[in-house]
Amino acid sequence: MPTLKDIAEAVGVSISTVSRVINNDVSKHVSEDTKSKIWRAVQELGYEPNESARKLVMKKTSAPKQPSMQIGFISSWSLSWTEQDPFFTAIVAGMRQLMEDRGYTFAYVHTFKELRNETLLHKLLHEQRVDGVIIFGNAYEEIDIVRLIQNQNPAIVGVMSDIPGIQNINFDHIAAANTAVNHLIEQGHRRIGFIGGCVYDGGHESEDRYIGYNQAMQKTGLEIKSEWIVNTEWIIDRSYSWMLELLERSRGEQLPTAIFAASDRLALPAMRAAIERGIEVPQDMAFIGIDNIELSQYTSPPLSTIHVPKFELGMTAIKTLIDYMNSDFHPPFWLKMPHELIVRESSDYKR
């Protein structure tokens, strides 16, 4: 069985240095590079503490730990994106509100991309003390990192996530898209385009909001034309430019009479482009989005959308995490928040 000496020899440091790193002893400084090498050697050699050490740790930890009143936050999306998108900022605002009410703060805010750095990951796992962790966004491709974190701290709640075996707070994206498209169909539209945004393998066809669009169209027997569909990868400029291109290349040909966009932020630039080219909204072309960001009610015309309780979703996530931390009952579940159709002038026209 590997020993501290084996690890020390593999890394080229003293046994005492290895011991300090493994036991989180910060009395003397150890560089991040050395820590990373030591933890890598621990994994490669399969080192486990001996029984006497394990008993010592058990003795030290037998007394109940005082809560740190800190929560970790890990996002699958870039932090700059989540800070700029009003949909995400509303969710995070809900989290922060309940945390403030309950006396909690974020101990760290990282992305999964950052945690692919072994040094940072080991520091998070072995030096950052938190009572629970929020996973923000789809993280199935990062499941190995999630499980490492879960081994250290089982109190994890996913927000708009896809992680099996944990508690997840979300809303039904497929059903919300269905609701939006069915509204357009009820208004008399038969030629309906789609503006989406997917950055994962599989493209927009694997994205829930496209799946909801596709289901609603197929159920009614409506044709789905590839030239009326675009994956913007959530880049709003691409929504604007795509609509201009669609109008330019479709001169003399049939245009879609309605557009369903996978978010309000994608619907608004496309609607602006159409209006700039003389398209009357909603008489010539109707628009509807999802998310109900604050700006959508102030555009001209105001944008129809699907309301999602974003602030409440964030608060529910933190409430669920705190309940998890204070209970011995931890069943995995998916909690889906309700959505609501908001009809405004951009689609309020019967054909």
UniProtKB/TrEMBL annotation:
PROSITE patterns: HTH_LACI_1, HTH_LACI_2
SUPFAM superfamilies: lambda repressor-like DNA-binding domains, Periplasmic binding protein-like I
Gene3D superfamilies hit by this protein: 3.40.50.2300, lambda repressor-like DNA-binding domains
Record domain HTH lacI-type: where: 2-58
Record GO terms (molecular function): DNA-binding transcription factor activity; transcription cis-regulatory region binding
Keywords, alphabetical: DNA-binding, Transcription, Transcription regulation
InterPro entries assigned to the protein according to its UniProt record, in alphabetical order: HTH_LacI, LacI/GalR-like_sensor, Lambda_DNA-bd_dom_sf, Peripla_BP_I
Pfam families with a match to the protein in the record: LacI, Peripla_BP_3
Statement: the UniProt record of this protein carries the keyword Cytoplasm: no
Coiled coil region boundaries: none
Keyword match Nucleotide-binding: no
Listed name of the protein: LacI family transcriptional regulator
Organism: Paenibacillus mangrovi
